[in-house]
Amino acid sequence: MTLVPAIRGVPLGGRVKSLMTTVRNYTSQGIVMVNVRRKCFISYHHADQEEVDKFVRTFDHERNIFVSRGLGKEMSQDIIDSSNTDYVMRRIRELYLSDSTVTIVMLGRCTWARRYVDWELQSSLRNGATITANGLLGIKLPSYSNISGSYPDRLNLNLKQNDTQSDCYARVLSYPNSSQVLIDAIEAAYQRRSTHTKWINNPRDFIKYNRQC
Question: What DSSP element (H or E) covers 153?
Fold first, then answer.
């Protein structure tokens, strides 16, 4: 959260949005508390396009909670054809993740089975001397079934594996019922990039073909 001095007589709306922030609250001391709009890569199965578009329209375009990245882009053929893990992960980050800092995987009925989702999550979780992993947040779409639904394997690996594990890198959220719930979840995912990297579990092997769903 960032504190910005209120300037008497100057409209803040345009200034704040130009800084990619959203006004959250006014205090009696004349201070405006704003929420930084994190750049979020949206990973999803195209069968869920309508629900994903509604999520982005509501929380990015209308409520200015985050800035979406990656929507509507097809996977490049050189990535599809390559068997070189390092090349695939580097190209996905260059072409799609770009300047994003949080990856949101939208969980539908068959998201777990899609190879591109696995590739995007693997690239998102890469962490090292020259690259910082994205925060990772799963969000259940309205069509997700809590009874028969499954998570992508790579998301599962970054959640708590048992009751004795004290923490983990990723989180999963039900479809947000308020802006504040989503703001807090995205910001927490962003902060875990510097506080929780020891919990990242990101095997080099990746799904080569879509699975039966």
Answer: helix 153-157
4 vs 164: which has the higher pLDDT: 164
Residue 52: φ, ψ to 5°: -65, -45
**pLDDT value of residue 73:** 67
How high is the pLDDT of residue 33? 47
Tell me the pLDDT tens digit for each residue of 10-56.
343 443 343 344 444 433 344 444 578 999 999 999 999 999 999 99
Half-sphere exposure of residue 59: CA atoms within 13 angstroms, side-chain side: 28
With CA atoms as reference, report the closest residue to 111 among 199, 47, 193, 29. 47
Question: What is the maximal distance between C-alpha atoms in the chain?
Answer: 60
- Report d(CA 109, CA 105) in Å as an integer: 13
Tokens of 66: 């985050």
Domains and CATH numbers, the chain: 1-36 (no CATH), 38-199 (3.40.50)
| Burial grade of 53 (CB within 10 A; 0-12, 13-18, 19 or more) | middle
Integer Cα distance of 62 and 100 in angstroms: 20
User: How many residues does this entry show for the chain?
Assistant: 213
Residue 46, both tokens = 């195209």
Sign of torsion over alpha carbons 193, 194, 197, 202: positive
- Using alpha carbons, select from 142, 175, 188, 194 the residue that is nearest to residue 59: 175
SS3 state at 52: helix
Determine the Cα–Cα distance for residues 158 and 169; give it in Å rounded to an integer: 5
